[in-house]
Each structure stands twice: as C-alpha cells, then as structure tokens.
Description:
This protein has about 160 residues and is an alpha/beta fold. It has one domain: 3-Layer(aba) Sandwich (Rossmann fold), CATH 3.40.50.
Amino acid sequence: MLKNIGVIGGSYCEGEICELxxxxxxxxxxxxxxxxxxxxGGVMQQACKGAKDxxxxxxGILPYGKESANEYVDIAIPTYYGLARNHLVVxxxxxxxxxxxxxxxxxxLSFALNEGKTVxxxxxxxxxxxxxxxxxxxxxxxPEEAVELALQALIL
Length: 156
C-alpha cells in the first residue's frame, strides 16, 4: 500500500520556496509515496508538478469543486468545506512536510500535531516545541533531508 506524504504550504509562492516545493514533490514521487496536498496553487502546485515529473501520484483535497485543482493533480477530491478541508488533508496524510506557508498552513500544523503526527518543517513556522504535547515537529534544511525524515517517520 502506498504511503501518503502530505505537503502543506501557501497557495502562493515564488523563487526559492517554489524550487523547494518542486524538489520535495519530485523526491516524494521518486521514492514511491503518494503526495497529498490541498490541490491548489503555490507550494501545492509546485510539489504536485515535481511528483508528476518523477512519475508519482498526486491527490488534491480541494476546498470547493474539482475545477480549482491545479493541473498536476491526479485525483481531485472536492470537499466544499472551504478551509475546514485542511483537517482532511492532515487526516489523509501519514506524515506531513510543511514548506513556508501562511495562516492556513499553521492550522494544518496544529491539526497534525494534535493528532500525534510528525511534521517536517522546511522554512516554515517557528513553533515552541516545549508546547507540543503530541506529534513531532522536526526542522529540515534541505528538500532531501525533509523527505528522508518523512520516510523515516513512516517506518517508526
């Protein structure tokens, strides 16, 4: 069965953040995991593009209808839940990689940690680890390290 790695981050990105998201997606696709995301633009689109370029599978859990999915989403799941769909992205993911992000990404981080999941952060939110009672928040410096840490978390 495929392992699901969630990639969360802002619906807008540029420069280095777009490059990081693409590389993370590419590495996820190369390693044979499914990429789960919110399915829209920005970090989500770049990660999906990377995964597709590597021959991987992408799933977009969308806030509204299928028409909002980016062109690199293989399986578009319309929820019509708006931002509440962030919880579904977390639930569908075995482990998550957060890249940069806005306040919506912070909500996904909170959901994931409260559910005891591991979140790998790549240039994402600074969180006081002393206040985390469930889950793990691990900072990575490179896309390679982020994906490797995510895969290790799947084994544990």
